[in-house]
Amino acid sequence: MVIFSSRFKPLRPFSLRSSYFWPTFFFGLVTPTFSYGEGLKNSTREEHIIVKAGTPSRVQFPSSSGATSYHLTSKDIEALPQGENAAFSQVMLRMPGVVQDGHGEVHVRGEHSNLTYRINGVMLPESLQGFGQELDTRIVQSFNLLTGTLPAQYGLRTAGIVDITTKKGTALNHNELSLYGGSYNTIIPSLQLGGTREKLDYFISLSYNHNTIGIENPTPSFRPIHDLTQQAKGFSYLSWHLNDLNRLTLITSVSYGDFHLPNTPNLEPAYPLEGHDWSKHDLNSRYLKDRQNEQNYYSILSYQYEGENLQFQLSPYFRYGRIAYDPDNVRDLIYQGVAQKQINDFTTGGMQADFSLDIATDHILRFGLLGRYTDEKLDTNTLLFPIDENERPISSKPRRIIDNSGNWAAETSAYIQDEFRITHTLTLNYGLRYDNFASSFKNDNQLSPRANIVWKPNRKISFHIGYARYFTPPSPQYLSSRSIDLYENTTNAPETHKNDKIKVEKSHYIDAGFIITPTRTLEISVDAFSKWAHNLLDSGQFGQAIILTPFNYRRAHVYGSEAGISWHSGPWRVFGNFSYVKTFGRDINSAQYHFDQEELDYAKRRGVTLDHQGKYTASAGLAWQTKRQLAYIDFLYGNGLRRGFANLGKQSPYDIFNIGYQYSFLHLVKDHTIKARMDVVNLFDKKYALHDGSGIGIYQAQYGQRRGAYFSVIGEF
Q1: For residues 188-204, average pLDDT
Q2: Which of 2, 11, 279, 375 is 20 to 30 A away from residue 453, measured at CA?
Q3: Which pLDDT does position 667 carry in this prediction?
Q4: Alpha-carbon distance 41 to 690, whole Å?
Q5: Per-residue pLDDT for 49 more than 70?
Q6: Buried b (16+ CB within 10 A) or exposed e, 511-523
Q7: Window from 47-56, 85-94, 135-144 with minimum mean pLDDT
Q8: Do 83 and 77 touch, CB atoms closer than 8 A?
Q9: Torsion over CA of 475, 481, 486 and 491, rounded to 10 degrees?
Q10: What phi and psi, each to the nearest 5 degrees, are found at residue 647?
Q11: Does position 648 have pLDDT exceeding 70, yes or no?
Q12: What b-and-e string marks burial along 641-664, b requiring 16 or more CB atoms within 10 Å of the CB?
């Protein structure tokens, strides 16, 4: 058994007329309700594609970049299951091509993670991939998911760009206190404060989350065993207007979470442990006490200048993250032969600079630089048993192995691109991007061309097609062969000691699609994509600690399509999304010690479907909203992720229905509103498995949440 685990306005979307590379083409269908404000609406230079999706209403995007963009606002989130109290990953599932996985993960367009998160136009420093979700949905004013052939501005993690515009004091008419709770002993108090003081604009969000379903249940039972979580989050946005052209912004975030890892009862003991009798009731696997603590802290300082023809943003940032896993030494040794305490630290510092210059009537030049340095430390303290040549324990007294290792990585990037308005109906966005990755285990670089063409022959239809070359470096979580060799002849020894270094993924990507708006209330969107990758990056959980570690497939192909429809009339809104994706990877060519030799041989000889493939996914919703009332019905469908040896099997499909109702008591206390809300998640109590514990990079079974009823009271003051 292998237990290793290395385991202001955001830069005025560059020019409000050019929209800082916000994509032009919107092929999808997610609940948008957004306008960039008067600056964009009054622009005379850009034509705009108005897109409705999800719980539909109007969205405006400039026809410039040609990437595919899906959009949500805080008002849209309110009409989704659990509203602002939903996990951010659950909100993203209402976008096309987003597939649900365990540990709060989502997969966009058939890729494992490979997502970049941006806050108010600044790239969020990268963190460890654990279970807790540090992004709090309640801080979101709006966000875009950009996919497809991205402009040169976007690099490194390119499966999707999650670009969040946070709430600001100028957008709030009140402060807000909320109490949310219900099934699984859930209680979530939260506080939002915002306002303006002369030149200062501020927003602060604080929340606490207590429940007994912190991590997916490893059994189909209604209530998981030993699954308590307690999480605290804080976020602040401070913006100081130095004058009409200059602004200084500081964003800080704190996330702290404790998780009990849920148990599977009545497992068969496997290893004798000196001084402990298997027959004792308190040694049953239901009483395992494994725990994990996750912490994330980041700070972003931005200086923004917004002149007539020149705009730029300079943003230094810093992040610290930690995942600490504490095993149940006695029971882990009895059931798995290994009890490993892990502390994984991740520190990142960097600087991002972006510039936009109107160089001619039909050209906008954009260019920028990025540099960041990451230091990763992994400290392990492992109890295990020595074994003989037949892999049988030769002693019931455990040994201890202590190993402290780490890596560093430095990434630098530069880009330049031109938005060329060829005619009033045709726009070309082309550019070059250079990325360099240097680390303690691998160095690589690439010059990447990008090009998109958008054609809008009339107001009712738009087409786009594009090509992008991508460069995706791995997370610096490489465990050296020296560390692996420490476990030779123990219950933590891998089957194979082959350990090629983690590599940079390089790929070619094409994307094309169209959007039709036959009437003002109806919209139909279609998009298709294909990716050919060399050294495709994937991730897996290879030990008890929920720390995802990377590995590569030598060759891979991912392709698919997305489609949707949206309609609105008065208080009624309807949306529907559907996506199809196929994945294929051949030859696992790094960190091979994680895998059985038979599986490695099969993947090299025949190739495999990637474990996170959800071949078909769908989402739909119906919402009715007035000034006082909100009612919705929500639907999610998943075709099932992969399972079994070499991912040859597939989990069963599932379909989940959710409903909710909210009533607003207007002016109940002076001029303030009080909202009462109810949500029912998984209305028909569907039992469904995300994973059954088998498949490449899958460590344990994970079942979706059973039915839950939740209630909230929201007061303004």
Answers
A1: 93
A2: 11
A3: 76
A4: 44
A5: no
A6: bbbbbebeeebbb
A7: 47-56
A8: yes
A9: 70
A10: 60, 30
A11: yes
A12: bbbeebbeebbeebebbbebebeb
In this structure, what is the dihedral angle of CA atoms 341, 346, 347, 351, given to the nearest 10 degrees?
180
For residue 323, give the nearest of 376, 364, 283, 279 by alpha carbon: 376
Nearest to 98 by CA among 523, 579, 537: 579
Q: Comparing C-alpha atoms, which of 164, 102, 172 is closest to residue 137?
A: 164
| Residue 128 scores a pLDDT above 60 | no
Calculate the CA 236 to chain-centre distance.
Answer: 21
Which token pair is 477? 């979580």
Q: 450, 431 in Cβ contact below 8 A?
A: yes
Please provide the size of the chain in residues: 717
Q: Which of 293, 291, 285 is nearest to 330 (CA)?
A: 285
Structure tokens at 9: 């306005």
The residue to which tokens 């100028």 are assigned: 170
Neighbours of 115 (CB within 10 A): 19
**Is 81 within 8 Å of 90 (Cβ atoms)?**
yes
SS (H, E, C) 438-470: EECCCEEEEEEEEEEEEEEEECCEEEEEEEEEE
Q: What percent of the chain has pLDDT over 90?
A: 70
What is the Cα–Cα distance from 362 to 371, expressed in whole angstroms? 31
Mean local confidence (pLDDT), 41-61: 31
3-class state of residue 595 by DSSP: coil
Please enumerate in sequence order all residues whose Cβ is within 8 A of that of 37, keeping only pairs 6 or more positions apart, or say none. Answer: none
